[in-house]
Amino acid sequence: NAGVTQTPKFQVLKTGQSMTLQCAQDMNHEYMSWYRQDPGMGLRLIHYSVGAGITDQGEVPNGYNVSRSTTEDFPLRLLSAAPSQTSVYFCASSYDRDRSGELFFGEGSRLTVL
Amino acid sequence: AQTVTQSQPEMSVQEAETVTLSCTYDTSESDYYLFWYKQPPSRQMILVIRQEAYKQQNATENRFSVNFQKAAKSFSLKISDSQLGDAAMYFCAYSGTGTASKLTFGTGTRLQVTL
Q1: Is B115's pLDDT higher than 80?
Q2: Maximum distance among all alpha carbons in chain A?
Q3: Do B102 and A45 touch (CB under 8 A)?
Q4: Which residues of A touch B42 (CB under 8 A)?
Q5: Maximum Cα–Cα distance for chain B, whole Å?
Q6: Which residue on chain A is closest to B33 by alpha carbon?
Q7: Rounded distance between C-alpha atoms, residue A94 and residue A3, angstroms
Q8: pLDDT tens string A50-60
Q9: pLDDT bucket at A98, cuts 50 / 70 / 90
Q10: Which residues contact B39 (CB under 8 A, 6 or more apart)?
Q11: What is the pLDDT of residue B97?
Q12: Interchain pair A58, B102: CB under 8 A
């Protein structure tokens, strides 16, 4: 039972480079989201999706792009990385219809932008 | 916009003792959910306990319980009989009406457990 799988777990980029953080879940969850975690700031919502083909912005969406072509996958794209995007990124999913609000998290991806 | 405040950046408790972590939130909604998540050094986020605002009874999960004061917008977590494995970051989180899974997190409290 894989749950939420994030890749890569670690990545170092140079300023201006692009990359994609992958997220996949095998629980048939309709809701998926991306958070970033920075010291002293908790987790902040970047983008989220309530189903295939539907995405919306969270609290800190600038510099990030998402798409949801399938129920299982929700990749996060950095188009032109900046040092301010150095962070730990978490993908999370849930079965939103039961309104439990319980998120299932991936193990996180640590990104460093030089 | 909803906000969640955790005013204790760090707490310490001796093994087998009880500790309470504080959380306050601000919302204009009447129906919402509150959560405590645990993040051990492994980074994995784990749900500890969940409270539905319309339920007056405080939620309990084994050694973990909450004190939910809706009027005061307060949601504290009590850990009884603390164990070394309880050492972690603890995040309070809020979700409102609409998309129940869209959580707003506090800044976290780091809990140390000493022998």
Answers
A1: yes
A2: 42
A3: yes
A4: 107
A5: 44
A6: A101
A7: 10
A8: 899 999 999 99
A9: low
A10: B45, B46, B88, B89, B90, B91, B108
A11: 67
A12: yes
**SS3 call for A83:** helix
- CA-CA distance, A69 to A52, in Å (whole number)? 5
Nearest to A101 among B42, B103, B106 (CB): B103
Q: Does residue B100 belong to the interface with chain A, where contact is any CB pair within 8 Å?
A: yes
Beta-carbon count within 10 A of B61 CB? 12
Q: How far is A45 from chain B (nearest CA, A)?
A: 8
Length of chain B: 115
Q: Do the Cβ atoms of B101 and A108 come within 8 Å?
A: no
List, in sequence order, every beta strand (DSSP E) within chain B.
3-5, 10-14, 19-21, 24-26, 33-39, 46-52, 60-61, 64-69, 74-79, 88-95, 104-105, 109-114
Please enumerate in sequence order all residues whose Cβ is within 8 A of that of B66, keeping only pairs 6 or more positions apart, or say none.
B34, B36, B49, B51, B58, B59, B60, B75, B76, B77, B78
With vertex at residue B66, the alpha carbon angle to CA A98 and CA B45, rounded to the nearest 5 degrees, is 60
pLDDT tens for A38-49 read 988 889 999 999
Task: Report the pLDDT value the prediction gives residue A86, as an integer from 0 to 100.
Answer: 97
Task: Find chain B residues with C-beta within 8 A of A99's C-beta.
Answer: 33, 100
How far away is chain A from the Cα of B108, in angstroms, using its nearest Cα?
A: 6
